[in-house]
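## retry 2 of 3
previous attempt timed out at serialization; input unchanged, resubmitting
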Amino acid sequence: MKYGMWLDEWFRNYIQPSSKIKTCERYSEIIEKHLKVKLGEYELDELTPLVLQRYVTELMQSGNIVTGKGLAANSVNGIITVIQNSLKLAYTLGDLKE
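## retry succeeded, writing output
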């Protein structure tokens, strides 16, 4: 399964039903503006630690969509949180081997 498809499924079935409106808005923004754009076409098992670390480095150096400069640490941490939570559940459900 592609990561972008998994993010949609994860958000719709696991985040929206149990999260506050502001959390849903923030997660949705992260998914649409950052994750699906850069990582959405990867298969889940292609998201290796090296691929993810390169992405985080890119965010810190040039991840701001408006200015092209690095994102603030707090913004990067929010993106990392969404990645971690989505991949942990994929692993728990058996959609991701490692």
